Amino acid sequence: MTLFMIERNFAEQLDFTVEGATEVTEINNEVGVKWLVSFLTADKRKTYCLYEANNMEAIREAARRASIPADEIIEVTEHRPEWLLAAT
Known about the structure:
Blueprint: E1 2-9, H1 18-31, E2 34-40, E3 46-53, H2 56-66, E4 72-76, H3 81-86
Antiparallel strand pairs: 1-3, 1-4, 2-3
């Protein structure tokens, strides 16, 4: 699976709810993507979400089904300081 960072812009402030997370997770499971973590900006109008998926189209399809934006989808690579330090 490939890692993708998704930027989502919301016109109104966003509140995360159990119901919303459950719905998104069910849709993601149907499409074959996995939501790993999200970050909500202080003004609650933008999120940055890290996902695993086979391709960007699967993420777009999940967002479309959930009626949530996916304004930018960027393929990313994970690097952790402990991995780099352990290699030395």
